[in-house]
Design brief:
The chain is an alpha/beta fold and 328 residues long. It has 15 helices and 5 strands.
Length: 328
């Protein structure tokens, strides 16, 4: 029976192949999809890179992990400092090394005059390791990992090669984001320029305690200005200055409850970070005092209102540094 209909089957297969090739060339390889795709959330590196393509006017670039992603509103900073448009290039699960890789990718798209990078307490934790970062690998897709130059396994290599030949497959995560954005109320507002505050709240005592075990599992951990994270940040600072781009470091705020659990660690980490930064002569933006407990949605991230307050302070400090010509 199949043999009798082989002509119709062949025509159908050829038609499908022609449609696939036409979609590949007209929609994906032409850049049409990337330039028009909507997002449900800009938390992944590939989504952030696609979003950056639509912000070529950005003169301020903020990079780092989710503490920057949820805490810095570029639109508020720009309105306050009057120093050019901004873009939040931070993404969830970033560490110092992937932040370095992401910044390099973003600099291929944007041309900022100032890059602001976060320096969280775990930056100077001497036990911090980048190899085999299970948390990052749980959150980041294989496409995210090889987009950032991170090592991938054999399956990831196959995935990468297929994606390089078949663009629609390589951008399937963006397709998923686009489909999610079609749900009413789920499309990301691109006017936020990369800021993303997750919905909901997790500030109950139980939620804060659980988060503290995740972010600060060992309050007795040793810190040093030569820790792996600090070394990676130092490399980023030197590379940016080599490109003629000014650098500033942002100290992210945390819920006051952290002090009860890891106060001594925070103090030691602050001292180590200051020692590290003094060696580079980097300007520091510290707006931790601009927010209160009620401004947090969880232990490490602000609400939209909290992000606006924090960003207002960030903009004011950038304006002050600009006026004093302290940025370098």
């Amino acid at each position: 029976m199949l043999w009798a209909h082989r002509g119709s089957i062949a025509i159908g297969l050829v038609t499908c192949l022609v449609v696939l090739v036409a979609v590949e060339l007209a929609v994906f390889r032409s850049g049409l999809f990337l330039s028009h795709v909507g997002f449900a959330s800009p938390v992944s590196p590939i989504a952030k890179l696609a979003l950056a393509e639509r912000a070529p006017d950005a003169r301020l670039l903020f990079v780092g992990d989710s503490t920057v992603l949820a805490d810095v509103a570029p639109a508020v900073v720009t309105q306050t400092c009057d120093c050019g448009e901004g873009f939040n290039g931070a993404f969830a699960a970033a560490n110092a090394r992937t932040t370095l890789a992401m910044t390099r990718r973003l600099l291929g798209i944007l041309h900022p005059r100032l890059v602001v990078v976060d320096a969280a307490p775990w930056l100077v934790d001497t036990s911090g390791q980048f190899t085999g970062d299970l948390f990052a690998r749980e959150v980041l897709s294989p496409a995210d990992l090889y987009a950032l130059g991170e090592p991938v396994d054999a399956v990831g290599m196959v995935d990468k090669e297929v994606g390089s030949v078949w663009t629609a497959y390589g951008q399937r995560f963006l397709v998923k984001e686009w489909l999610q954005s079609l749900v009413p109320g789920q499309r990301y507002d691109e006017a936020k320029r990369g800021l993303y505050v997750p919905p909901g709240s997790a500030t109950s005592p139980a939620a804060l305690a659980a988060a503290m075990e995740h972010y600060f599992p060992d309050p007795t951990a040793q810190v040093a200005p030569s820790a792996p994270g600090a070394t990676a940040l130092g490399a980023l600072i030197e590379e940016l200055r080599g490109r003629g781009i000014s650098v500033a470091v942002l100290l992210p705020p945390f819920h006051p409850a952290v002090r009860e659990h890891a106060g001594p660690f925070l103090d030691r980490a602050d001292a180590a970070i200051q020692q590290f930064l003094s060696g580079y002569g980097v300007s520091v933006i510290d707006c931790r005092g601009a927010v209160a407990a009620t401004d947090f949605r969880d232990l490490a991230h602000l609400t939209e209102q909290g992000a606006a307050k924090h960003s207002l302070c960030v903009g004011e400090q950038i304006r002050t540094l600009d006026a004093a010509s302290a940025l370098q």
